[in-house]
Fold these 4 entries.
Entry 1:
Amino acid sequence: MKVLVTGGAGYIGSHVVQDLINAGHDVVILDDMSLGCVENIHVKAEFVEGSTLDEAMLDDVLAKNIDAVVHLAAFKAAGESMTDPEKYSRNNLNGTTNVLNAMMKHDVKTFVFSSSAAVYGYPEYLPVDEKHPVKPINYYGYTKLAIEENLKWYSELKGLKYAALRYFNAAGYDVNGTLSGLEKNPQNLLPIVMEVASGVRKSMNIFGDDYDTKDGTGIRDYIHVNDLASAHVSALEYLQENDSFTVNLATGAGYSVMDVIKEAEAISGHTIKYNIVDRRPGDPAELIATSKQANELLNWEAKNSDLNTILKSMWNVYNPEGKHD
Ligand code: UFG
């Protein structure tokens, strides 16, 4: 298949592109490079620099005999989405509508969408499954949910076939070390821990140690980007013969902030200095999910998402003294 990957130079997108190419697909990347990384653009992919807000550009790109679109181009910082919703409505909502409309114009009917656990909001039970109520608590999560709703309409009205993949906490770098361009402006726990381990930051904050968890710190379900990437390839192939679907991509296992810090200290050999500060608004104590549906539909399972593998793959790119095995 010839697949357009929007955001294909980004952190998750570059891993998806690599897997698509390894699976024998042709790839066109569309990326505005606001968060993309030049070193991570696959040599075998055709690269178009441009934004999903540029409708003329999208028209040109979709005219390249594209069979399917994997749409990752979006902003994803939940905190920022609450102070600058316009940035998120423009890029995430308008950008996605433009992509879908360009697809309809060129009769491209297969769409894999990068959705998020943020559609669920506070978990009402654990592990979260796909039947869990969707009540986002940040604007970012709302944009992902609104797009999912729109996909249902386009499916009904226009015959679109889509996969909505709800990622839990994406983490790690390519386990083979091929993609080593660092994520720009990372805001999540694991890259912050790596920045302290590598000396880029002196210390970090732990947002609360009084949660009702084993050590008082927050527990999350970390999923390796290589595992996320393989699900996109399987989803695309599944949609050739089957109907639209929405699934979680997670492991069902949870690690606390303290687990992450201790494991990162063991791998890096460096002490990670931290301060305990107040809880961050909007953070649940624990968020883990089941991916039973992804397993049943796609025969997908996480293979690289134990904490040691995730953190080792990150230390490979963050280690200031070079590659680490
Ligand atoms: N944390 C800290 N210190 C930090 C950063 C994070 O203690 O400096 C803690 C948080 O309180 C939380 C855990 O580490 O307990 C993970 O926090 P992240 O910010 O890495 O991730 P979140 O779980 O808050 O959210 C992430 C994405 C969301 C996405 C969600 C899906 O940022 O966009 O995962 O589960 F929706």
Entry 2:
Amino acid sequence: MKMNIAVLPGDGIGPEIVEQAMKAVKAVCAKKGHELTYEYAITGACAIDEVGEPYPQATHDLCMKSDAVLFGAIGDPKFDNNPKAKVRPEQGLLKMRKDLGLYANLRPVINFPSLLHKSPLRRDLVEGVEFMCVRELTGGIYFGEKGRKDGGDTAFDTCVYTRVEVERILKLAFEFATKTERKKLTVVDKANVVETSRLWREVAQEMAPNYPTVETEFMFVDNAAMQLIQRPGNFDVMVTENMFGDILTDEASVIGGSLGMLPSASVGVHTSVFEPIHGSYPQAAGKDIANPLATILSAAMMFEYAFDLKEEGQMIRDAVNASLDAGVVTEDIAEDGKAAKTSEVGDWVADFIAKA
Ligand code: IPM
Ligand code: MG
């Protein structure tokens, strides 16, 4: 198959981890005879420094004509600590999501048996946990009108959802749930207080009868935050609005042992984007110590979701599992003193794929 991908390393550890994922991508393509072409583009703080904006038109054009986008991370402390900054790296990520129409962010929470002891939760709670968070990505409070009044002393952010936006994300989540073993969909909202949540619940209740094989349950977001810790094994597919999803997926990511392990796929109208859910981890940038596995696993999702190449995705996943079993892992999950470098993990995974 011809595969034409855009590579957006971004900021912080982005370039290092994307480089490792590219090693895995190339190894799989070589093995399976796929014709890979790829082009790099800038985004985030480095794009602000270079051209004054975090998601330049040239980067967008490249994404639009590519079959898939592999993304690292964006963000830089020099902006985090300056609330008055006019242009921020994160705006680039939001603009990319909006302009590519990426309304659904799929974040699988997977459990890695060899990392069970790293989880802050008890082993019996975590064992066998596997669920999918479907996060709405182009609406809600992230994109509503925001600003200041009263000379700056009052600030507001508006949460807006249209029926069309809610329907399309719920449709994706319901359809996803029809394909899982347990066929259970948890719709997470705050319908006891928030009007947009009431619209979500109303639309979900209308749609549920169209998916008779799916068991639909509703859960308030505060309760969901608790259930994720108390009974993570009860979730199968969870769907929620943008900001709730942002928060709950960070919470969920540590169930498996490390934030450095969670991949994601953002899908929607145009080219899909594959990225780890962790951020740019600036403290580790350039040190060759960051965990590349979330990005490598994002590449696995890219094969599956953008190219429908299931076997290729599984090859990467098998290699990642093998690296965990062999203890070839970075310091966040390594046992005392035996940490491998970012690049060593990348080489090991690519080598495993080549020899498989
Ligand atoms: C994420 C990140 C982003 C978000 C930030 C970097 C804008 O936290 O992808 O979860 O809030 O969506
Ligand atoms: Mg987040």
Entry 3:
Amino acid sequence: METKTLQANPLLISEDLRHIVTALRSGQVAALPTETVYGLAADLYNESAILEIFRVKGRPADNPLIAHIGALSELQKLISEPSDLFYQLAKCFWPGPLTLIGQRASGVPDCVTAGLPTIAVRMPSHPAMLQILKQTGALAAPSANLSGRPSPTSAADVLEDFNGQIPLVVDGGSSSFGIESTVLSLVGPKPVILRPGVISREMIEAFLGISIEVAGSGSPVLSPGMQYRHYAPKAKIHLLNSAEELSLFKERGAYIPETLTAQNLYAELRQADRLEKGEIAILLNRKMRSDEALMNRLEKASR
Ligand code: TXA
Ligand code: MG
């Protein structure tokens, strides 16, 4: 199969928009830009299209997908009785990098939520993604990488994993945040962050006026995706505390990113693999340590 790339700068021209919407409506999968990372999307209500996402990614069937919507009116079909809190958070942070988990509505196919009684939903803010979502309705989309690889933050990253394997990629430029959305569960007695992300714990706490937990490695697996080795390049990652250690790795020819932020993390991990480096050495500083999302991904990638 030939993978066709459509350009969005940042919007799609009407002919390309028609093309991508028709493809998605007819059950094809396509890689689409979001403000966090690229997603591998398909019609949420088309079971065979959803199964194709799992097949192409090599994703375990017990790892649920995020529903992406372009309008709040889509929520009723996905969430059974969204709470007031759900709407308040959605109105404050959408469109944007916050994923909210609620009880799923009856029309949602089992394969999307991996059989869970809950569903994850977000409204992304990339203009081309919103253009598409407004015409297709809800799309299910995990990050557009082979399972276990670093998430893609450009169309070139997507092609590295999927060229010839999927029919369409929409190139919407480099992802502005470069790291996945924050996943916040609203199904328990208190909101819990299942995956730290761009919207920080502090931002959510400031909005809610209460302190909230980030589900840690000690607690039961709440977000199935967090149990797998993740976000990992082929190279082995070493997290370092001193300049002395760093110079040892430099001598050994390890890949050493100049500056590392959540925004360029995945791009750097992929670059190390392109250069066929066996090792990546990262000197942690205070700023990095205080970034919960960055540290979460680094710890998972270096396991
Ligand atoms: O920024 C993002 O969220 C990107 C872009 C494409 O939107 N998407 C993304 O999807 O990162 P994915 O599939 O790579 O990660 C989804 C995470 C996984 O850890 C999954 O287990 C969790 O969300 N998740 C999905 N549905 C869930 C549910 N019902 N309960 C708990 N965790 C859920
Ligand atoms: Mg992912």
Entry 4:
Amino acid sequence: MNSDMAAETKGTAKLTLPSGKESNLPVIVGSENESAVDIRALRAETGFITLDTGYMNTGSTTSAITYLDGEQGILRYRGYSIEELAEKSDFVETSYLLINGQLPNKQQREAFGQQLTRHSLIHEDMHHFFNGYPQTAHPMAVLSSMVTSMSTYYPDTMDRNSDIDLHITRILSKVRTLAAFAYKKSIGQPLMYPKNSLKYCANFLHMMFAVPSEEYVVSPIFEKAVNQLFILHADHEQNCSTSTVRMVGSSGANLYASIAAGVLALWGPLHGGANQAVIEMLEEVKASGIDGKKFIEDVKNKKDNRRLMGFGHRVYKNFDPRAKILKKMCDEVLTHMGVTDPLLDIAKSMEEVALKDDYFISKKLYPNVDFYSGIIYRALGIPTNMFTVMFALGRLPGWIAHWKEMVEDKDTKIGRPRQIYTGPTERKYVPLDQR
Ligand code: ACO
């Protein structure tokens, strides 16, 4: 599918430069009437560039994958609302939708599921790699290196004419195995091979929690929760990690290298690492015995540059629709398990305080997807340092879909922003003995 199919040029915007010179810039309009001033010719015509640190207001591409309206709290994958997909779809079907642009029919769905099952094993030699890491290794470091390492087993990936669909199936299936193996290794348990009778998410839970000495039955409620969590994380248009995947891929780097870069970008606490940071924050509040209100006061006073982790979003300035679904799921999972989690109570009370507080209201800071996901992961038995890995597994189809869209777009250029230089002007080199 050509990502530019729905983008139309509708009129021009006039820019007057300090010299009085005028530039007429085309206005591009997308299928949901989002408008952009196309500045691609600006520098050649005028010598000016645009400056937009953090890409707060820069469209890096057109894309037909995900529509997001941060003001209205809308998120849709290929036109389908996140609420409907979370309720009615499963992760494999949603992955197919993101990657291929359409929901699969029965045969396509079956074939895709079978392919994912068939490719779930990793090369036996890769098991040795896990032995080289110290017990303290963060699973995101292990995962990113393992994803890069996978490219060494499929060297034809360097050839852009190789079977891209096969690489996509491999990566989608095997990364799940690598993630579970990294966890098993970190706790010193034997690696559990995938079980082909199980569906994608159930198979992941099996590899994570089964041990050879005992029968492990995957709880349907856990399987549903993982499916929903993965669907909610599956894509989010041009976020930090996805833009990284596109940027790395734009140089011609192969799919494995591009996805590994996405994993690393996701690791940061301001992005995917926030789910781990939320739990650490809640644990800190609990351990210190202070109430959430005091913590929020510290955040407002920017004490030690504190932030209320799991709050705020670059694009959602109303609410994050994913957080609403997760809050409900969180209650469901905990009620079903008959457990209470003191961290959930702290989270709820902090959320209540923050949502009424002028600091958060005026800055439009609302709970994001990570505020409740960590509590659900805890309930499922997933350790804190694996939370961001869970996010990476969910985000995989989105990264893949964007990489595929980019390589299939004939207008793709290598990502290469400009800058405004602020360093010294030209000066003469002074020999060491004269300085
Ligand atoms: N707690 C307290 N204050 C905050 C928070 C927060 N969570 N988020 C933003 N602010 C404040 C900033 O201090 C800043 O205040 P100022 O104007 O007085 O300087 C203002 O709100 C704007 O913040 P920016 O960092 O400029 O906003 P930006 O859009 O760049 O940041 C981000 C978005 C990174 C998500 C931010 O809200 C944040 O750090 N949140 C906490 C981390 C988090 O939950 N990340 C997960 C995001 S969702 C995801 O990646 C899946």
